[in-house]
């Protein structure tokens, strides 16, 4: 302790010598250079480019998520109550309005007190010095080591703080310094600055802070952890009342009356429980159970566009997203109605994308499961909607074979043969492969349009022989399966160096089962495939962002992929007509469409994988596209059974009976019907019959 006190004496002497004798220290080029550096840093302190909170809004302008390292709400001088200014100066620097950055009277008094008591009883840092320290620790420092160095009690650090404080007092007004301090100081609970503190502890704004509220916030600055009002209310209240007493002191620059002080001390703490600070992630934000999948995709989208996590967590951006709360609610309700959120090992994600010639805006990404970390409550933080799943889409992939055939000149009204059984030698290195149709699918030639509605396996394997496997795979990539085909391996896992992409592996292995949809796929990308067809063959990246502004409100450009005309409008129109009968009598989703009261023109396709571990329905009107995948999302990896309107359940591979026309269709039609309420009925594009 004696050594520490001796150090304080030395420190005080150094400060006095360095700051009160500038002429003596100012001689020489080296000192001038140091002074210049200090001046540059003081200008940086004036600008105070602090890490700020990024806010994500839905299409109606309501917040859905916040990203931050430190929760901050920048607050201007005129938006901070006088009571807050009174409280902070009273307890932290009562001579703030009088000194010039360093309080020599306070420094010497503190030194005398500490020496006489034999312990460190008082500190002597002014608010200006504290601002310098907090800025260097919480704004400039970029690592734990830098933060440690900025806080270390050394003569060099104290000297630098003091010199900067004096420099700031020459270039900033007292009000500017006080406001800057109140915007950077930590109040505990990951909350920095009075704007965020008012919201976190009281759910209010700084201009509305009362005497008792201001005093508590000022009290927290001394020891935010130890004085946490929800954990240590007695200590917090004691410190708060001490602040209130000092606010009423005649020596306080902004004084309150004794009567106000007595009334304030009788007030309860009234701190929010839980605190009003929003969570900094896609988990736990308002509506995150429903919006979390969209939020995760948005963040991933911006990462790919060049915005690092650090930029998003510190940049103070305002992101206007494409999320439609009404569409999201309708899709979430439908997904959960068919597969309850706590269903063991069965997920039911749905994606909604709005078609367009210049953009494809993502309107909803939901699942039966809530977004979160508690699996016991039916939550998952894994993005089962936009990321590539290790489950296939079944006969939905016949769309790509049909699209390749139409591009090569086929009409949706041309007939294809549909035998009950077919053996091909064209795939898998020439080895014979025999294909059968699913139960209930009759044999006999039919038009391509009828084949897409009834989904015979044999007919599409024969068609794949004609159009070529490579052409069908390329078509899948063009229409929208960009990540699914080019960013994962043949097992749907992230690519390792030197591995083949899924598309490359399918081609290299001559995988004719591609047209039967056995390969990994993203639900969002399936929805975007339908949006591409509905947009006259114009592919656009599925975007979750409409606009983005920086902390100053200036527009921020987002680098993204450009839209591409991937198939001709004629091919897109013919494909739309080919897919126009699935919801009609005889189509695989007719029963679900009829039950939901679906009346609009629609292009759609269902699919089911072998062993009934996943099933899909994709569909689109000219106004909106969607996809639903019901899948096994946890062990045991067994097939799914459907028994009437009861929730689906796992029942082993041999007994499964899940189809795209059951759970996925029963999810899709009610959701899309609700989403289309109030929209005009639009016809699918027409192509001439041959």
TrEMBL record:
Start and end residues of each Penicillin-binding protein transpeptidase domain: 361-613
Catalytic reaction annotation: [GlcNAc-(1->4)-Mur2Ac(oyl-L-Ala-gamma-D-Glu-L-Lys-D-Ala-D-Ala)](n)-di-trans,octa-cis-undecaprenyl diphosphate + beta-D-GlcNAc-(1->4)-Mur2Ac(oyl-L-Ala-gamma-D-Glu-L-Lys-D-Ala-D-Ala)-di-trans,octa-cis-undecaprenyl diphosphate = [GlcNAc-(1->4)-Mur2Ac(oyl-L-Ala-gamma-D-Glu-L-Lys-D-Ala-D-Ala)](n+1)-di-trans,octa-cis-undecaprenyl diphosphate + di-trans,octa-cis-undecaprenyl diphosphate + H(+); Preferential cleavage: (Ac)2-L-Lys-D-Ala-|-D-Ala. Also transpeptidation of peptidyl-alanyl moieties that are N-acyl substituents of D-alanine
GO BP terms: cell wall organization; peptidoglycan biosynthetic process; proteolysis; regulation of cell shape
Signal peptide limits: 1-29
Lineage top rank: taxon: Bacteria
InterPro entries: Beta-lactam/transpept-like, Glyco_trans_51, Glycosyltr_51/Transpeptidase, Lysozyme-like_dom_sf, PBP_transglycosylase, PCN-bd_Tpept
Chain ranges of the Glycosyl transferase family domain: 62-247
CC per GO annotation: outer membrane-bounded periplasmic space
SUPFAM superfamilies documented for this protein: beta-lactamase/transpeptidase-like, Lysozyme-like
Keywords: Carboxypeptidase, Cell shape, Cell wall biogenesis/degradation, Glycosyltransferase, Hydrolase, Multifunctional enzyme, Peptidoglycan synthesis, Protease, Signal, Transferase
An example Gene Ontology molecular-function term: serine-type D-Ala-D-Ala carboxypeptidase activity
Pfam family, any one: Transpeptidase
Protein family (similarity comment): In the C-terminal section; belongs to the transpeptidase family. In the N-terminal section; belongs to the glycosyltransferase 51 family.
Protein's recorded name: Membrane peptidoglycan carboxypeptidase
Organism: Actinopolyspora biskrensis
Lineage start: Bacteria, Bacillati, Actinomycetota, Actinomycetes, Actinopolysporales
């Amino acid at each position: 302790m004696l050594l520490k006190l001796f150090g304080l004496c030395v420190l005080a002497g150094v400060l006095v010598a360095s700051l009160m004798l500038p002429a003596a220290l100012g001689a020489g080029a080296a000192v001038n250079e140091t002074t210049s550096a200090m001046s540059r840093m003081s200008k940086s302190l004036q600008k105070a480019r602090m890490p700020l909170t990024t806010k994500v809004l839905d299409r109606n302008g309501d917040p859905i998520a916040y990203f931050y390292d430190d929760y901050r709400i920048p607050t201007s001088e005129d938006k901070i109550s006088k009571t807050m200014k009174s409280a902070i100066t009273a307890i932290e620097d009562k001579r703030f309005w009088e000194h010039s950055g360093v309080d020599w009277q306070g420094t010497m008094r503190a030194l005398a007190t500490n020496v006489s008591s034999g312990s460190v009883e008082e500190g002597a840092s002014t608010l200006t010095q504290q601002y310098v320290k907090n800025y260097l620790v919480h704004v400039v420092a970029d690592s734990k080591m830098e933060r440690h160095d900025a806080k270390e009690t050394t003569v060099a650090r104290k000297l630098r703080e003091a010199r900067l404080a004096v420099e700031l007092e020459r270039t900033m007004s007292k009000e500017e310094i006080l406001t800057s301090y109140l915007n950077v100081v930590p109040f505990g609970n990951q909350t920095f600055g009075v704007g965020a503190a008012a919201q976190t502890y009281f759910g209010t704004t700084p201009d509305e802070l009362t005497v008792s509220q201001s005093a508590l916030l000022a009290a927290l600055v001394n020891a935010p952890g130890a004085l946490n009002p929800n954990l240590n209310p007695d200590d917090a209240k004691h410190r708060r009342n001490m602040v209130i007493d000092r606010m009423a002191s005649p020596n306080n620059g902004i004084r309150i009356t004794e009567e106000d002080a007595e009334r304030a001390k009788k007030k309860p703490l009234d701190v929010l429980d839980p605190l009003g600070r929003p969570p900094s992630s896609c988990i736990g934000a308002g509506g995150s159970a429903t919006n979390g999948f969209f939020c995760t995709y948005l963040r991933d989208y911006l990462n790919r566009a060049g915005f690092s996590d650090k930029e998003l967590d510190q940049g103070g951006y305002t992101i206007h997203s494409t999320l439609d709360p009404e569409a999201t609610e309708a899709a979430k309700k439908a997904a959960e109605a068919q597969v309850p959120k706590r269903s063991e090992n069965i997920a039911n994600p749905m994606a909604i994308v709005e078609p367009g010639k210049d953009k494809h805006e993502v309107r909803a990404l939901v699942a039966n499961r809530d977004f979160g970390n508690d699996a016991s409550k039916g939550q998952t933080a894994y993005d089962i909607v936009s990321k590539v799943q290790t489950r296939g889409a079944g006969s939905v992939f016949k769309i790509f074979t049909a699209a390749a055939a139409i591009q090569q000149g086929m009409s949706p009204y041309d007939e294809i043969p549909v035998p009950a059984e077919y053996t091909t030698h064209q795939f898998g290195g020439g080895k014979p492969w025999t294909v059968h149709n699913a139960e209930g699918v009759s044999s006999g030639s039919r038009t391509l349009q009828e084949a897409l509605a009834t989904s015979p396996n044999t007919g599409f394997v024969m068609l794949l022989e004609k159009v070529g496997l490579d052409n069908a795979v390329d078509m899948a990539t063009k229409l929208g399966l960009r990540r699914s085909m080019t960013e994962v391996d043949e097992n749907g896992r992230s690519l390792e160096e030197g591995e083949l992409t899924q598309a490359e592996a399918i081609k290299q292995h001559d995988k004719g089962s591609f047209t039967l949809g056995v390969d990994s796929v993203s639900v969002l990308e399936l929805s975007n495939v339908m949006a591409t067809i509905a947009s006259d063959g114009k592919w656009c990246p599925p975007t979750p962002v409409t606009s983005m502004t920086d902390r100053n409100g200036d527009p921020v450009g987002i680098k993204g992929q450009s839209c591409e005309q991937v198939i001709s409008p004629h091919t897109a129109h013919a494909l739309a007509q080919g897919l126009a009968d699935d919801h009609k009598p005889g189509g695989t989703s007719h029963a679900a469409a009829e039950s939901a009261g679906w009346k609009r023109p629609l292009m759609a396709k269902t699919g089911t994988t072998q062993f009934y571990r996943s099933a899909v329905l994709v569909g689109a009107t000219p106004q909106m596209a969607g996809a639903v995948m019901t899948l096994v999302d946890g062990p045991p990896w067994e097939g799914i059974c459907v028994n009437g309107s009861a929730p689906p359940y796992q029942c082993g591979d041999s007994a499964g009976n899940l189809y795209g026309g059951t759970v996925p269709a029963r999810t899709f039609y009610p959701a899309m019907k609700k989403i289309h309420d109030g929209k005009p009925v639009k016809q699918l594009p027409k192509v001439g019959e041959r």
